[in-house]
Design a protein that fits this description.
Layout (H helix, E strand, L loop, with lengths): L4 H10 L14 E3 L6 H11 L2 E4 L6 H4 L7 E6 L2 H11 L5 E4 L13 E7 L6 H7 E12 L5 H8 L4 H4 L4 H10 L3 E14 L2 H10 L13 H14 L2 E13 L3
Parallel strand pairs: 2-3, 2-5, 3-4, 5-6
Antiparallel strand pairs: 1-7, 6-8, 7-8
Length: 253
């Protein structure tokens, strides 16, 4: 017989959630990966850049996987536990880690970088990205798309209005990028299957990915968590779908 609700929840509530490493979920939850391989594509661009900025780097894990970094490499991050983790991981490679709020302005001069990257930025300040890019420079990123993991969001919060479901839609982001002065040269969305095999995986995921159920706590959502635990026990893994968009935009020369 499997472990019970209270044990699974307590274990997940005690697990550390700093950084962007999901290895705690290994063997218990799965997420299909986008077909394009963002880290590989990002690494190829970094290898050719002279000065680059990674926005909202998290714990620095994605950037740390790049083979060759440009001579000038900076990252920004707003969450203190991630700032500490990124500093420890990236400083040995000569990367400047800047702790800054996730709001404009970016703490860099105009036309400072020929490449700006970001993986899963919580917010995208297009005018600031345009400002810090040199003419001819590139923004290359993997964004979270619209209604990502909404099966979980709506299980806890109920049906969401259409305007919320369309937040981060590629058409809207493309229009915003163009309005800020960028030329969008690539926009590729994918919808990807996720499976959660027990309630502990969901508690851990919602603690770590805080925008799926804003304000999530075990205490506040215990009744709904128990309902979901019972559902998984009866029917098997809870299935959701993430959405991802590969974005490439250029500042006209």
């Amino acid at each position: 017989m499997g472990r019970g609700f209270d044990e699974l929840v307590a274990e997940a509530e005690a697990a550390p959630v700093a950084g962007w490493d999901f290895s705690w979920l290994a063997g218990r939850a799965t997420e299909e990966r986008p077909s394009w391989g963002y880290q590989r594509l990002m690494s190829a661009r970094l290898a050719k850049a002279g000065a680059a900025l990674d926005i909202q780097t998290g714990g620095g894990e994605v950037l740390a996987g790049a083979g060759k970094l440009p001579p000038t490499m900076a990252v920004t991050e707003s969450w203190p536990p991630n700032v500490a983790k990124a500093t420890a991981l990236l400083h040995p490679r000569g990367v400047v880690v800047v702790a800054t709020p996730d709001e404009p302005p970016l703490p860099f001069g105009d036309a400072a970088f020929d490449l700006v990257t970001s993986r899963h930025p919580a917010t995208v300040w297009w005018a600031e990205i345009t400002r810090v890019l040199r003419p001819g420079g590139t923004y290359f990123a993997q964004h979270v798309g619209p209604a990502s993991v909404f099966e979980l969001t709506e299980f806890f919060l109920g049906p969401q209005p259409e305007e919320v479901r369309r937040t981060r839609h590629p058409d809207i982001e493309s229009a915003d990028a163009r309005a800020a002065g960028l030329e969008v040269v690539g926009l590729r969305p994918e919808r990807l299957r996720m499976e959660f095999t027990d309630i502990g995986t969901i508690v851990y995921f919602l603690r770590k990915v805080i925008w799926i159920v804003p304000g999530f706590t075990v205490e506040r959502h215990r009744d709904r968590l128990r309902d979901l635990h019972d559902l998984i026990e009866r029917e098997g893994p809870f299935v959701a779908h993430s959405t991802r968009v590969l974005v490439e935009a250029v500042k006209p020369a």
